[in-house]
Structure formats: C-alpha cells, structure tokens
Amino acid sequence: MNATEITQMSKFERLQTMEAIWDSLIHDNSGIESPEWHQDILAARKKKIEEGTAQFHSIAELRSRPVK
After folding, report:
1. pLDDT in tens, 3-32
2. Rounded to whole angstroms, how far apart are CA atoms 46 and 65?
3. pLDDT given at position 22
4. What sections of the chain are H helices per DSSP?
C-alpha cells in the first residue's frame, strides 16, 4: 500500500487501518534497536543530572513557551 492508495481511503477506513497497525505493534515483541546517537543523548542528559547541572521545567512552563 502506498500514500496515494491511503489518501483514497475514507477517513473511517484509514482510522481502522491505523488502529490495526497499532494493535499489531503492541503485540510485537521483536523490539527496535535504539540508534547510537540516541544513546549518546541519553548519556549526556544522565551526566548533567548526576553533576547537578540539568535544568528541569514544569509542564506549565513548557506550554507557555512560544511555538517556533
């Protein structure tokens, strides 16, 4: 199935298809390997927390930021 075929489906059919895909992913135990760059970011964030230099923001603060 390609993007053109998907856009030709009704909204109801697209939602049904999306739900079926999500359901199949929930029951898939194969997992996805996290990319190396992601591990690097997580390690850098953990280091900042351990050093006490990490900055934390509330949900309210994040919501009040202008959208770029």
Report:
1. 999 999 999 999 999 999 999 988 888 878
2. 24
3. 93
4. 3-7, 11-26, 36-51, 59-64
Tokens 């199935």 -> residue? 1
Domain boundaries, the chain: 3-27+34-64
**What confidence score (pLDDT) does residue 31 get?**
79
Which tokens in the block code for residue 37? 């760059």
**Which tokens go with 17?**
């298809």
Instruction: Retrieve residue 59's tokens.
Output: 């949900």
User: Is the pTM for the entire model greater than 0.70?
Assistant: no
**Cβ atoms within 10 Å of 9's Cβ, excluding its own:** 13
Spatial separation of the C-alpha atoms in residues 21 and 14, rounded to whole Å: 10
Q: Are 12 and 19 in contact (CB under 8 A)?
A: no
